[in-house]
């Protein structure tokens, strides 16, 4: 099996090492694991692509590359430059430091990398590690992903639906903010929504008197509705959410047609 790995935390991120280990376990001794990851952190870039300017790419080691671009850029670089069109059997994105559940999905570069792979017609899985008070005290905050990551990926490959249609399925996996030994199991979930939690800005004045704005998010440990990703994670479960890039609100179509056509 040939696996392409990327992330949004950057080529030197500890979560990428975790994902590489997962990929090697899945690929097997005769498989290939190729890494194309951002040269610098790209958290929060979503599905951004560097459409208006070029990006530099550098070979760091055997099957290991850093690109000055987003995770989606890295997937494109991997497919059409690094692998020279030799398509991988699977694309893995992560393991992100922090959850990509609920509204975080819309901002996540980790999700963006998996989404681009799906748009390219490839099986793709995004993996993220929820962080909290219990993970901060662990020898490795990625413990849940380390313990369960390969098994979850293998379950998805063996049992999940992998359609080949337009806007094909990809999967979003979040590991709960606890030790791997304490994980209760796996739950298939919908994308949640944290009520009254929004992105915002915080202003600061530099020593030169100029104003700068920091983008900041809201609390990450607010419960979401039962059956959703963040709710499962905070209850100690790994969440798996099937996703597509199609943003059509199908539930509103008939009402809109009745009103406008």
UniProtKB/TrEMBL annotation:
Its main location: cytoplasm. Its EC number is 3.1.3.5. Residues 3-195 form the Survival protein SurE-like phosphatase/nucleotidase domain. A divalent metal cation binds at residues 8-9, 43, 96. It is found in: Cytoplasm. Signal peptide: none annotated. Binds 1 divalent metal cation per subunit. One of its GO terms (cellular component) is cytoplasm. One of its GO terms (molecular function) is 5'-nucleotidase activity. It catalyses: a ribonucleoside 5'-phosphate + H2O = a ribonucleoside + phosphate. The keyword Transmembrane does not apply. It is an enzyme of class 3 (hydrolase). Its cofactor is a divalent metal cation. Keywords: Cytoplasm, Hydrolase, Metal-binding, Nucleotide-binding. Nucleotidase that shows phosphatase activity on nucleoside 5'-monophosphates. HAMAP family: SurE (MF_00060). Belongs to the SurE nucleotidase family. PANTHER family: 5'-NUCLEOTIDASE SURE, 5'_3'-NUCLEOTIDASE SURE. This is 5'-nucleotidase SurE. It comes from Roseicitreum antarcticum. The gene is surE.
